[in-house]
Amino acid sequence: MQAWWLDASTDPPRMQLREVDRPVPGVGQVLLRMRAVGLNRGEFIVGGLSKAGMAKPLGIEGAGEVVAAGPEATRYAAGDRVMGRFPGGLAEYAVANEADLLPVPDGLGWDAAGALLVTFMVAHDMVLLQGGLKAGGWLLVAGVTSGVGVASLQIAHAIGARVIGTSRSADKLEKLQALGLDVALCTSTADLYPAVMQATDGSGVSLVVNAVGGSVFADCVRCLAYEGRLATVGYVDGQLRAPLDLQALHAKRLVLFGVSNKMSTPQQKALALRQFEHDMLPLVASGRVRPVIERMFGFDDALAARVLMESNAHTGKIVVTIP
Questions:
Q1: Which domain CATH number covers 314?
Q2: What CATH number does residue 146 fall under?
């Protein structure tokens, strides 16, 4: 079978389409015929999910049909449509732990199923589990046109919260009006703090999702209301350091937290998936939240899909389909 790999021994890292053996499901695993895979920026960043000098199979989320189940795998049978977060999905076939999979709801296409779980599970963790956002509260998303930004917007809108979103692109912000974006701030023309204070009648926001990085961190802290929370999920600006206003942190009883699964145990990941299934799968099945797909590429065009992702010209998700 064919599978896409990332060779991080070169600079820049190079994608390779390799001929490899079809995997065999082990204990508690299933073999999937892959149908769609969502691309994620982190899997191409050396030092993040990929290690310098090494090669690894690409794909960390996807959807497909169950071909066979290994020993002690009992939830899914051959022909079932499933989606999940698992390594090596950008291939014709892949194996996944049964505990890392969810059933694909009726009416959800392969493209959406393949691009759902990474961004929406991260957003679910930030917005609901750790962020504690409630109906009527204000959410500020710095970098709202990213995949996780769009997912955070949709979840907040679905529970009745209000959303302020920032982007450098006015065109991208306009696309998100239909998804419930209440206040759109083009960061090239708007001063973030005064605009947020005006929108919230001077109270600030309950929760900030920072998908940009250190360049906006200080302003994000300023925008928080009393007992507000700030989630850091990305640093596309490359700035890994930022000043922290300790007086504001202390006086306003703020909570700052990060969201990453890099160091999570398999048991923690399985628990998070079960929580997501309970809270979010009904919203997905009803159509209230769905991934925004910027563009789909064929399996042989995965190189072009990576180029589009790294250009930052997209809104939402980029999907590779496997016929």
A1: 3.90.180.10
A2: 3.40.50.720
User: Which amino acid is it at 209?
Assistant: V
pTM for this entry: 0.91
Among 240, 258, 276, identify where a domain stops: 258
Separation CA 207–CA 204 (nearest Å): 9
Decide: 197 and 204 in contact? Cβ < 8 Å.
yes
pLDDT in tens, 112-159: 999 999 999 999 999 999 999 999 999 999 999 988 999 999 999 999
Token pair, residue 203, equals: 């109270």
| Side-by-side strand order, sheet with 55-57 | 14-19, 2-7, 55-57
Looking at the domain assignment, is residue 86 inside a domain?
yes
Question: Residue 175 is part of which domain span?
Answer: 119-258
> Across-strand partners of 34?
64
Helices 117-124, 266-279: axis angle to 10 degrees equals 90
- Compute the chain's Rg from CA coordinates: 20
Percent of the chain at pLDDT > 90 equals 81
Asked which of 238, 258, 278 is the last residue of a domain, the reply is 258
How large is the greatest C-alpha to C-alpha distance in the chain, in angstroms? 60
